[in-house]
Amino acid sequence: MRVHGSGLSPGRTSSRESDRNRRIEVIIDFWNKLRTNEQLGATTWSVLEPLERIVTDAFSTSPKNLNKADAATAEAFSHILGFTEL
Fold first, then answer.
1. Residues of the chain whose pLDDT is less than 70?
2. pLDDT value of position 8
């Protein structure tokens, strides 16, 4: 990602960009751990896979659509907890 006109030296990121990158890492970590865990709580992969695809597609855009990825991940978490009526 590029920072235009930020006044930062090359290789440095703004606090906002660092927060954004951290949120992306957390979402990716959630899905990676979920993929390696056999316990899916109150749901199945048939419910979670479409949400995972939404996250993958959201991160395939430039810039990454973090809000869409956040929403799909939150919905997945709700299904895992058994809260299907949101």
1. 1-13, 85-86
2. 46
- Distances in Å between the Cα of 2 and the Cα atoms of 40, 54, 71 are 37, 24, 25
Q: Is the peptide bond before 63 cis (omega within 30 degrees of 0)?
A: yes
Look up residue 11 and give its amino acid: G
For residue 10, whether the previous peptide bond is cis, meaning omega lies within 30 degrees of 0, is no
Q: Are 72 and 65 in contact (CB under 8 A)?
A: no
Q: For residue 63, give every residue at least 6 positions away whose Cβ sits within 8 Å of its Cβ, in sequence order, or none.
A: 1
Q: Which residues contact 35 (CB under 8 A, 6 or more apart)?
A: none
Instruction: Tell me the H-state helices in the chain.
Output: 15-36, 45-60, 66-81
